[in-house]
Design brief:
It comes from Corynebacterium hindlerae. The chain crosses the membrane at residues 44-63. This is NfeD family protein. Pfam families: NfeD. With 142 residues, this protein is of the alpha+beta class. It folds into two domains: 1-72, no CATH class; 79-138, Beta Barrel (OB fold (Dihydrolipoamide Acetyltransferase, E2P)), CATH 2.40.50. 44% of the residues lie in helices and 21% in strands. It contains three helices and five strands; from the N terminus they run αααβββββ. Strands 1-2-3-5-4 form a five-stranded mixed barrel. A hairpin with a 7-residue loop joins strand 1 and strand 2 (101-104). Helix 1 (2-20) runs antiparallel to helix 2 (24-39). The protein is rod-shaped, with a radius of gyration of 28 Å.
Amino acid sequence: MGPIIWFIAALVLASAELLAGEFTMLMLAGAALATAGAAIPGIPLWAEIACFAVSALLLLVFLKPYLHRHLTRKPVLDTSVKALEGQRAVVLEEVTGTGGQVRLDGSIWSARSIDPTTPIAVGEEVNVVSIDGTTAVVWKEL
């Protein structure tokens, strides 16, 4: 009966992880699963509890920080167009709500203003709000 209870506890704890989302419940579910495996030969209850405690401690101390670091690590070099958002650019050809050109990150980009009523003159510095295909959507701070 012991292994079944530990297995059910592992399922409940793993399900609770969906609400928490910080790996704590998942580590406890792993400890309960390890205890279910250890309880199959019929060890005493105190040994099952000790197995759960040791497994939970080891998983929480060693595996949880590793998983958290691994899953939240940012890419070393972001080469996507998302990396250009927030950058500054220089206007090469007047930018309006329908078109223009800017020098962004050393290359020339098509651009349009986020505010279609205000044209941005040549030589002005602008901020890149987003990249829409091959067009940089920019705005000039007042």
